[in-house]
Amino acid sequence: MEYFYVPPSHIAPPRLTIDGEEFQHLTHVMRRAPGDEIRVVDGKGNVFDARIMDLLRREAHCEIIGQSRMENEPERSVTLAVGILKNGSRFDFLVEKATELGVGSIVPLATERTIPRHARSDRWQKLAVAAMKQSGRCVLPHVLPLTPFDRFVAGFAGTGGGSGGGSEVPLKLIPHEKETARTLREALPGTAGNVVICIGPEGGFSDDEVERAGRAGFVPVSLGPRRLRTETAAIAALTMVFA
């Protein structure tokens, strides 16, 4: 069944309202009519089975006929921080695939070797919405603004928390090509928990950045013997974490 995204402000059980781009998709692309049943997610973990009641000029009114929580969501909460890439389409791809795999938040990083100095966070957030619906998820990853690397790792120093949210101290990992003693799989705990992963841009993190991350509690890990592109490294790391 087709999924539609409706923010919590538009949901007041037993009714919800679809407007904007989702309304256009509902009526002009999917050609749905009153009486049709759809699935609606609010990006906060709620899934609603809904029946279309009325189609107005710019919005649809629906009746909620069922509700569930956290469908198709992973047990681990993962924050993915990635050095933004010179090729914007490659970062678009990364955002889509990270969302499909189950990431909780995405932090574009400005690092020593980052070439672009601007981020398209609004575009990436829209891509995350589309990928959430396509993959049947109900939690919308938050794409944060461009964040300096040092500010990001400092936010997770000490007791944890920072951009990842929640009170649980996260496992903080930084894949690096010079690390050979510990793989990412070996660093993962046997039980679910919050994980933060830092992935470098083209050229990777500098040795100084890895050292500074280590002082903030980030553990260097290996993704294998081959040198991976940034988007490949991010997808590989997430696949291992969610496996």
> What is the CATH architecture term of the largest domain?
3-Layer(aba) Sandwich
How many structural domains can be distinguished in the coordinates?
A: 2
**Helix/strand class:** alpha/beta
How many E-type strands?
13
Per DSSP, the total helix count is: 7
CATH superfamily of the largest domain: SPOUT methyltransferase, trefoil knot domain
CATH topology call of the largest domain: Alpha/beta knot
Question: What is the radius of gyration?
Answer: 20 Å
Main beta sheet: 7 strands, parallel
User: What's the mean pLDDT score?
Assistant: 93
Shape assignment: elongated
| Assembly category | single chain
SSE topology string: EEEHEEEEHEHEEHEHEHEH
Are there runs of 5+ residues with pLDDT below 50, and where?
A: 159-167
Quickly name the level 1 CATH class of the largest domain.
Answer: Alpha Beta
Strand composition percent = 25-35%
Distance between the termini: 26 Å
- How much helix, percentage-wise, in residues? 25-40%
Question: What is the topological layout?
Answer:
Blueprint: E1 3-5, E2 11-12, E3 15-19, H1 20-29, E4 37-41, E5 46-55, E6 59-69, E7 78-83, H2 88-101, E8 105-110, H3 121-135, E9 142-143, E10 147-148, H4 149-155, E11 171-175, H5 184-187, E12 195-199, H6 207-215, E13 219-221, H7 230-242
Helix pairs in contact: 2-3, 2-7
Please describe the structure with a list of short key phrases separated by commas or semicolons:
243 residues; alpha/beta; Ribosomal Protein L25, Chain P; Alpha/beta knot; 2 domains; 6-stranded mixed sheet; elongated
